[in-house]
Design brief:
heterodimer; A: 403 residues; mainly alpha; Cytochrome-c3 Hydrogenase, chain B; three-stranded antiparallel sheet; 47% helix; B: alpha+beta; two-stranded antiparallel sheet; binds iron/sulfur cluster
């Protein structure tokens, strides 16, 4: 167990009083509204405390007052840099509860969209991480690349941020016909080359190395004890990835590697995410090649809305349509837990249903909330500037941390 | 991950001549000659993709002039996750038919999810491509049936013009002053 340090009122090593400092909630390095309360001994951190909750919107309570379908667009607002993961975990939980499965084409589309959004999320992280450490250039390039990915996503879902694309039992609409060619062309022609360029900007840069090597070291054992997941855990040398260790959707049919680091410092987190950027792109290309033909929505009558041009043919269809629309999906009693590997780690949804059309209780397990718990320990005895590097390495999104 | 060797002549030379910094500089220098990727919004803007979900609007019946399609089934109100829609309706005492007197759309509440458009059984609602929705007051953002029909008509006209000009979605257009 880590040795606990309490804040003290005695004099510091230089004979001056300890200084209390609020790092955030408006500090740009906190990527949102995280507040870290610091007690400083000259420029070194003696004691750090995390304060969450500035962006709390009460998603779990909100879900209890919405039908299952109505909550789907709202999940997009949790982790707003990787919205597909949230939605996927939620719809997979409901599907598990009802015992249905999305058609194979829908599953492939889900994988494609999730990997694309993983790329976009990691790219934004790369840029923001550069800024945290004083490198302004990468963010310009990363945003440019992210723009291309978002264009692809926008073509399919119609939105850049709040997609509302996955549905319970499938996906909203099929991929547009020109999507495949455009995506493959972009990814194969320019994407890999660009990632290599961005790697050059930071990988061997001596300022970057100085700021990240040996900063925020977490051992593998510690990482497991703290409940780390995602790239943060893999950077500590633990090859754990839900896509491989608890496969969901069609991931078992696709080939990809899981990168791991060996020292568990902030530099390894950078390396792991950069390899993931390439692996995800390879996954998208593979999935697009294997994409089967067929339906994108399950035909289960408890979920499937009859098509609009058929509903006026006979009255039963019309009643069914109106009933499903106004009543929503009635899930059976039970409790389930569904999880996906998000861009930041395990995103899980625990659902308790009492047999009505609304969840009785919804619990959302978010990765960064758990990953961040180690920050006070890592910050101890480090410079304030190192805290920015440590926080940056965790790739937090406050929309997700605060729920 | 294999660690790089941190000794040897090559390493020392790279350290001495700031090789990695030079590489980075070269990258930024090269991009001075590439085409800018930004657009000069608002003089330039782009055509929203087909599936874009902007402001919600009502449409007129294509068969009958000055008649909207809404039948007052209230399904859109039921499915809306944020309660942005409402209907004021009455029953005609003579014919016993339901009349939609007014349709209320509270835009500040709308999260542009598109569920109402998806569910409307008679296709009376559409998602337009309008996204610059700021107004001076909250009152201007509460749209009634008349306003929504106007918006829908305007959008349909613009879309038709766009198609005539052969503009594809996600391409840039210059805005005429
Ligand atoms: S787009 Fe969504 S939030 Fe807006 S009115 Fe329609 S259903 Fe409601
Ligand atoms: S769903 Fe369509 S027809 Fe029914 S009330 Fe809404 S707009 Fe009118």
């Amino acid at each position: 167990m880590p040795e606990t340090v309490e804040p003290v009122e005695t004099l510091g090593t230089t004979g001056t009083r300890h200084l209390w400092l609020n790092f955030g909630p408006q500090h740009p390095s906190t990527h949102g509204v995280l507040r870290v309360l610091l007690q400083l001994d000259s420029e070194y951190i003696r004691y750090a405390q995390l304060h969450y909750g500035y962006l709390h919107r009460g998603f779990e309570k909100l879900a209890e007052n919405k039908t299952y379908d109505q909550f789907v667009p709202i999940t997009d607002r949790l982790d707003y840099l990787g919205p597909f993961f949230n939605t996927c975990a939620f719809v997979m939980a409901v599907e598990k509860l009802m015992g249905v499965e999305a058609p194979r084409r829908a599953q492939y589309i889900r994988v494609i969209m999730m990997e694309l959004i993983r790329i976009s999320s990691h790219l934004l992280w790369l840029g923001a991480f550069g800024i945290d450490l004083g490198a302004i250039t990468p963010v310009m390039y990363c945003l440019r690349e992210r723009e291309n990915i978002l264009d692809l996503i926008e073509m399919v879902t119609g939105a850049r941020l709040t997609h509302n694309y996955f549905r319970i039992g499938g996906v909203g609409k099929d991929l547009p016909p020109e999507f495949k060619d455009r995506a493959v062309e972009y990814l194969e022609k320019s994407y890999f080359e660009k990632i290599k360029d961005y790697d050059v900007l930071l990988k061997k840069n001596r300022i970057f190395l100085g700021r990240t090597k040996g900063v925020g070291i977490v051992s593998a054992e510690e990482a497991i004890n703290y409940g780390f997941t995602g790239p943060t855990l893999r950077s500590c040398g633990v090859p754990f990835d839900l896509r491989k260790n608890d496969p969901y959707l069609v991931y078992p049919e696709l080939k990809f590697d899981i990168p791991t680091g060996d020292t568990g410092d902030t530099y390894d987190r950078y390396i792991v995410r950069l390899v993931e950027l390439r692996e995800s792109a390879k996954l998208v290309i593979q999935a697009l090649e294997k994409l089967p033909e067929g339906e994108v929505m399950t035909r289960d009558p408890r979920i499937f809305q009859p098509p609009k041009d058929k509903i006026f043919d006979n009255v039963e269809t019309l009643i069914h349509y109106c009933y499903l629309a106004s009543e929503g999906i009635n899930a059976p009693r039970g409790e389930v837990y569904a999880r996906v590997e998000g861009a930041r780690g395990e995103f899980g949804v625990y659902l308790f249903s009492n047999g009505t059309n609304r969840p009785y209780r919804l619990f959302i397990r978010v990765p960064t909330f758990v990953n961040l718990t180690i920050v006070p320990k890592l910050a101890q005895g480090r410079l304030v500037a190192d805290l920015a590097a440590i926080l940056g390495g965790f790739d937090m999104v406050l929309g997700e941390v605060d729920k | 991950m294999a660690q790089e060797k941190e000794t040897g002549l090559k390493y020392s030379l790279e350290r001495l001549f700031l090789w990695e910094i030079m590489q980075g500089m070269w990258l930024t220098f090269k991009s001075m000659f590439s085409k800018p990727v930004t657009m000069r919004y608002p003089e330039e803007r782009w055509i929203m993709p087909e599936r874009f979900r902007g402001q919600v609007a009502l449409v007129y019946d294509p068969q009958a002039e000055e008649k909207d399609l809404c039948v007052g089934c209230c399904l859109c109100i039921r499915v809306c996750p944020s309660g942005a829609l409402d209907i004021i309706s009455s029953v005609d005492p003579q014919t016993g038919k339901k009349n939609v007197d007014d349709y209320l759309y509270n835009m500040p509440r709308c999260i542009f999810c598109g569920r109402c458009v998806e569910i409307c059984p008679v296709k009376a609602l559409i998602n337009t491509g309008y996204y610059e929705l700021a107004q001076y007051g909250r009152r201007d953002l509460e749209l009634h049936k008349k306003d929504m029909l106007q918006v829908g008509q305007k959008w349909k006209k613009e879309r038709r013009e766009m198609e005539q000009q052969g503009l594809t979605p996600q391409s840039l257009v210059k805005v005429k002053k």
